[in-house]
């Protein structure tokens, strides 16, 4: 990764997850809301290194790995 998500990416992730929860008729955010919108909120905020790009790695794969590695209580 050349550049990861900034603090503004976290704000966007929060706002999008809240909106998704609201659209689902809930007044609370679940981990599934965050996981559902993570790609859309973060995809364009993660810059892939040249080496990773040459190996065929894309931002969606990185987000998938982050979701997989992040423990959810």
Topology:
Elements: H1 7-23, H2 31-42, H3 50-54, H4 59-69
Please, could you describe this protein's structure?
This protein is mainly alpha-helical. It has one domain: Helicase, Ruva Protein, domain 3 (Orthogonal Bundle). The chain is built from 4 helices and no strands. The chain has helices spanning 7-23, 31-42, 50-54, 59-69. The mean pLDDT is 94.
Highlighted features:
Helicase, Ruva Protein, domain 3; 0% strand; 62% helix; mainly alpha; 73 residues
Average pLDDT, to the nearest integer?
A: 94
- Share of helical residues: 55-70%
Low-confidence stretches: none
**Basic shape:** elongated
Estimate what percentage of residues fall within beta strands: under 5%
Number of domains: 1
Q: Main sheet?
A: none
Distance between the termini: 27 Å
Q: Mind telling me which CATH architecture this is?
A: Orthogonal Bundle
Q: What does the radius of gyration come to?
A: 13 Å
The CATH topology is Helicase, Ruva Protein, domain 3
Structural class: mainly alpha
Q: In the CATH hierarchy, what is the superfamily?
A: Magnesium chelatase subunit I, C-Terminal domain
CATH class: Mainly Alpha
